[in-house]
From TrEMBL:
Zinc among keywords: no
Protein's organism: Scleroderma citrinum Foug A
Protein name in the entry: Anaphase-promoting complex subunit 4 WD40 domain-containing protein
GO molecular function: structural molecule activity
InterPro entries assigned: Sec13/Seh1_fam, WD40/YVTN_repeat-like_dom_sf, WD40_PAC1, WD40_repeat_dom_sf, WD40_rpt
Cellular component terms per the entry's GO annotation: nuclear pore outer ring; Seh1-associated complex
Amino acid sequence: MIQTGLIQNAHDDLVTDVSYDFYGLRFATCSIDQKIKTWQLDETNGTWSVEDEWKAHDATITKLCWAHPEFGTILASASFDRTVKIWEQTSFTKTADIQPAAPSGSQATGGSSSRWSERAVLVDARGTVRAVEFTPHHFGLKLATISSDNHLRIYECLEQSSLATWQLSEEVDVTSLPSASLPSSHSVTFSTPTQTGATLDGASASLVAQALQQSQAPLQGRGGLGNREADGGWCISWCKERYWGEVIAAGCGISGTIKVIQISPSRRPTTLLTLDPSPSGKPAVEGSSLVGVAAPESDAPVPYAVTSVAWAPSCGRSYHLIATGSRDGHVRIWRVKLAEETDMDDEGVGLKWTGTIVADFDNHKMAVGRVEWNITGTVLSSAGNDGRVRLWKATMGNVWRPAGSIGVEQAEDSVDLDASMEENAVME
């Protein structure tokens, strides 16, 4: 059963991101109001209360990410002010008369026994920073960022005791990143989507069509290049498995594709695979094409930017699942696996990867802002501009189906469970 709760007036403006910690008992929120808030779950009654809040940036905060708890209570935030900041929660002993003052850029709420301190500011981005994510903990205290300058940057903390020194270990323009040397390394095949959304009818269909036409008009008016900030999408997600090394999925701009990139300490980052949902399997935007792909024709279809990507935990599967959400309203699930092994070195270079679309849903009918997997990689959630959070789950035959949805402001007793969820529960 879906359990829901509603937090009224969480921020003074639109909430831009929500991020849970490792244990799921706390989460952090950020907003256009330039503040970060952390929330604590009261397990006795299931309610959430504000633990701390502070003004963190000088512009809209776009993304938050918690580090693994083995490194401490650490939070990273990305912003339109072109910076990434590293925050650490520290505790202090309260006395009757004296309490330590909160550091610059951070302020603890009254009566709190903790505070968040700004430990580092990363200022290398030449555009707004759109996503930040720590690497899986077995690779150490590292994080990746991607910004509207289309650059993927990897940072490594050199002083974990103070969190003050972060080294920029990799910086690469994703759009110009060459493909792997093996031609088949970026092969993509397609299977018939296992589930498609029902079509709208009547006035609703006309309104949606009109909205899509209006959203596509500025793209066509600029020869398919669009407005970088308004029409693009920038997102990243790390592969969770240690065996494959440091592999990250990244999307940028309006190309509509995701590149799976190998990060290696001994060579430049390499594209292992490009996930492209277009019918031809080729990017339709000049400047984002693969090596050896011809420039698009003048009447080439305009792609929709990928706004979110999520790499699922494998949990023993022989393949990987990567989910994407796009501005065209589609939620897609890709099955990524090795086609065959060639002469592979110790860092995994030389492997041939393939990707297949195994599910394609358009139930949101509007831009999808976020996709996220559960801890076992068996249930996918998506949030869209239609104001709904939707769940997707595979049946025993690996056929993906809707598993329920809820409006962001509806009460718990009005949760709309899809009938297929009940059918799946019976089958399983």
